[in-house]
Amino acid sequence: QAQLVESGGGLVQAGGSLRLSCTATASILSFNSMSWYRQAPGKQRELVADIASGGPTNYADSVKGRFTISRDNARNTAYLHMNKMQPEDTAVYYCNAVLKTLERTYHYWGQGTQVTVSS
Questions:
Q1: Distance between CA 3 and CA 22 in Å, rounded?
Q2: Helix spans in the chain (H)
């Protein structure tokens, strides 16, 4: 069973940048997609960005033009590059990977990493 380990969270001032990493214990080539979600206090978890195995990406409207998702298959790692950060980006960020088989769909989650943006 694959495990995902996130890193790179922390405290940043508004307008600053951070890069989150999500490293898998299995080859990420086996995943149909990898995604970043976030959950702010008192709010539901929301999709931030995802990247399919073939490369197409998708972003939440709130982060378009500021965040970039990428993947390094050789390092089994997905990244979330966050620029022009705003206080409303403050949340716990979770990495997610999806593996689809003929029988079922598997979801793997990381433990989460805290991102705090100060105004």
A1: 10
A2: none
